[in-house]
Automatic annotation (TrEMBL):
Pfam families: GmrSD_C (PF07510), GmrSD_N (PF03235), RAMA (PF18755). This is DUF4268 domain-containing protein. Residues 432-567 form the GmrSD restriction endonucleases C-terminal domain. Residues 590-684 form the RAMA domain. InterPro entries: GmrSD_C, GmrSD_N, RAMA. It comes from Bifidobacterium adolescentis. Residues 9-226 form the GmrSD restriction endonucleases N-terminal domain.
Amino acid sequence: MDAGKKVLLDLFAGSLRFTVPVYQRRYSWGEAQCRQLWTDIVTAGRHPDRTHFTGSVVWMQDGGIRPDGRSLCLLIDGQQRLASVSLLLIALAEHARRHPDGLCFSADMIVDRGYLVDKYSDGDARYKLTLSGDDRAVLRNLTDRLVDPGRPVSGGADSNLERNLDLFRGWVGAIGDANVVWNGLQRLEVVSVTLDQGRDEPQLVFESMNSTGLDLETSDLVRNYMLMGCPVDEQAALYGDYWQPMERRLRGLSFDAFLHDWMVATLARPVPRGRAMYSEFKRHAADSLLPRMDRVRGLLSSMLEYSESYAAVRGAEGVGDAMVGHRLGSLRDLDATVADPLVLRMLAMWRHGRVDRDGLLRMLGDLESYLFRRMVCQVSSNGLNKLVPSLIGRLDGDASDNDIADDADGADPAESFAAMLLTETVRSTRMPADDEFRQALLGEDLYRPASRCKHLLAGLENRNHPKDPRDFRDYTIEHIMPQNAMAHAEWRGMLEDPDRFPLLVNGLGNLTLTAYNSELSDGSFTEKRNRMVGGYGNEYLSISREPREADRWDETAIRRRGERLATLALDVWPMPEAGGQALLEQRGHGQTGEHGNSAVDFAALCGRGILKSGDVLESGYAGVDATATVTGDGRIRLANGETFTSPSGAFRRARELATGEDMQVNGWVAWRLPDGRPLDSLRRNDGTASVRHAFWKGLYAYAATRSDFIEAYGDPSRRKPKETTWASFGIGSSYCHLDGIVSVRDGYVAVDMYFTDTARYARLYGMRDRVAGMLKDLGTVDWNDPDTDRKNRLLKIRHNADFNADMTDAYQWMVDTLLAMRRIRDLLD
């Protein structure tokens, strides 16, 4: 590597010819960056004793010096700056042609000195700077027109180069003395960094440069990382076959967002955003001993395939199936982008024949129900960042099990997915049941956010159009009883209690869709019903049946319509359905919320000494003869020396080596211990699960002897004990829930009251002295601050427990506390 200070214009005047490799991002400077360059040049031009440093230019010679003395060079960093200076030189030459007097430079001088083009050469040697992609032709046309102004114009107003050239033309024409600009260019300095081919690593140098201008996107870094290290003759092919089609398909979408979702969908684990995502990508890309070109093609091929699905998920392209497209549109309306990687994985399973069309539609429908119910019930989405990758991994595992099966009894992915949602019972990731969903529909202000409200009403209406869903983009939300009804005597007369107006007016029973919102406005109910255009009497929507037939629109009418639509919503967004076997297989998996089992990964098993260095794993997968060993740092080493952190990644590679097939496999099931047990058995028999199971079994048996508990909660003797860290106890309330908690590792049991209604929680918080008195013999109460920035609130009390001793004391404490908590809840009634 050789670096030194150099006048920028000297790079233009010499024998070097710069070519921008295909892996570099396109020319992307906008007005802000061009204006900063212009300001720096003008400032330097007005102060003859001053120079201005403007960053670095990094390049590497591509081959030797040509017979004509020209040196072709790959431009690693500095494209934006050199291209912008080229545009400024064109603008100066054009200005000099129009206004030659009084200038210390001319158009002929700029052309003849070869700042932009050698008019006596052809090919790449003709041009000082050769850009990539569509920019190449545009810049060449601009410079050729400088030599021959009679050449036809090409490029177009859509070109960023053309737009910035027009900026420089305007600034040069307005400055008064263009000599200032020319003099400033002579004083613009850079650090010119020359890399030695075969010795310096361009990618590492590129990443370490702190250039001025626009920050690189993560996708820019990824593209450079994959293509920069490939042979030059391969770069153009890889760019044209893979990266360019992705760029065109994702035009208008965030490539970085796609890259993130692709990584989550394929790695089945949470992935950070920003520069940390690039580090994660490099670790993933390097976790293989495949030859570089094979590795790059594999990654690019996967990205290209997923880009098609991503464009469909984000609505930029169709998916080739009307009903699947409708389902994707419904999910898109929810704006729950955290679930997009899961949808991408579902579409990949469909495209590869691992789930049929009906199964895909069922999974997409269940996912919409899960997300929408949580939104309506105001369940925080914080837990979804961990749940989504977990669901992807479990789907892959079940699909792999199905692939392993020798008969038709293998797991159905759609059935498994339904079971996953039904058994995800922890607080932050649970799916609200029918009673909670219905209560929220009838008891909440549903008008805001408007996007959720419109999704609700459109979904209810389209229940009657299953084969031809209607498009309601041109419709708006209509309040049948208007929002300013209290200003009109006729509307006030329809209210039994004016204090209930705020909830009534924004409640489900009073909301509908219309294309004539401004026409209906705030008229009386009779006027709105009888209006010839847009009136309820002429409305065809099934959800507007009641106002079409009613004579009055009072509290009773609103309540009855709300009840009907809430019942209909339970059918539109139903709870998933799954058979007993699927539920049994999924129970206990993936509990990622506050009370869930901590995920036990491979490194954790090694750290606890359950697996030791040198332990051997064997394939239990038909047709794959493979072994692996456990390393001292908690990884899996295949026979060929490749190491992996996850069993699934290791077995996927082992299968590829043995069969040539690259397919996701659940390594926890496929790898076997020497005694024939699946590796997953070590994870499932961690020890704490069996203690939790014994605790709940003992608690239910003890509670069944307490008549006061049976009266309050029913007979628990038939309740099936689980291995989870928590159990829910119903108290007939939609706004709060009681949970019993057992933490084996931390040595305590607890009971909490979990509020979804923050107003009621605030009321109870105001009675905290009274509550403390009711619980004083049971322990210290822990309250959430009622003003905390959260949607939910928690009242919790805990009790130390020795799980190696007799648990009768813990059973008695939990039963007494559950009964006390129920009495505390009754204070609110």
